[in-house]
Amino acid sequence: MTIRVIVVDDQAMVRAGFAALLAAQSDIDVVGEAPDGAQGVELSRRTHPDVVLMDVRMPEMDGLRAAHHILAPPPGVTHRPRVLMLTTFDVDDYVYEALRAGASGFLLKDAPPADLIAAVRVVASGDALLAPSVTRRLIADFARQRPAARGRPALRLKALTERETEVLTLVAGGRSNAEIAQTLVLAEQTVKTHVSRVLNKLGLRDRAQAVVFAYESGLVTAGE
């Protein structure tokens, strides 16, 4: 299946470079480009991409606001692509908020080309880009600055079984399904089932939101 992608970045050279790199892949089709968040939202609704490659800092409308519009569309708009945030800096408040909003992950702009291609494929498959340690560090950094929301998020944890809570804790540590299976001595398919149940019970879209939730609820704390 061909992955439909749009690139949203205010720097024309960067935008063209990313588009050319991705378009050269046999399984990726770049269906549009936009120079700011507002035009990116409009382009997304018009072209229905699978993945939106979104710069964080842009004029007119930044990547965070654009991600909110794309991931929480108004009534009547049913298409919700995956959003992969791009940033120049490895610690950025916008990126944390974008993950909370439902973005599937983020990538540094100076990452190797192969990482960008792999990232698009990962989020298009429905997973979250949580493997790079910088992602876990970013979430932990902002969780450290913001006290855990012990109220409603913590109460939602009670919906989970003991095993599901263990799985969520390991997901928050950036572990893959295979690593979780090895740690808990379970079949990988069983882990996938547990992860799916955790997301459904907590009303979360993917692993990225699960990681943020784990920190905000106080299930895990920075440094663990």
Automatic annotation (TrEMBL):
Modified residues (4-aspartylphosphate): D55
Protein's recorded name: Two component transcriptional regulator, LuxR family
Residues in Response regulatory domain copies: 4-124
Keyword Transcription regulation part of the UniProt annotation: yes
Domain HTH luxR-type stretches: 153-218
SMART domains per UniProt: HTH_LUXR (SM00421), REC (SM00448)
Upper lineage: Bacteria, Bacillati, Actinomycetota, Actinomycetes, Kitasatosporales
A Gene Ontology BP annotation from the UniProt entry: regulation of DNA-templated transcription
MF terms in GO: DNA binding
Organism: Streptomyces pini
Signal peptide span: none
Keywords assigned by UniProt, alphabetized: DNA-binding, Phosphoprotein, Transcription, Transcription regulation
Pfam families named in the record: GerE, Response_reg
Keyword field contains Ribonucleoprotein: no
Family annotation (InterPro entries): CheY-like_superfamily (IPR011006), NreC/VraR/RcsB-like_REC (IPR058245), Sig_transdc_resp-reg_C-effctor (IPR016032), Sig_transdc_resp-reg_receiver (IPR001789), Tscrpt_reg_LuxR_C (IPR000792), WalR-like (IPR039420)
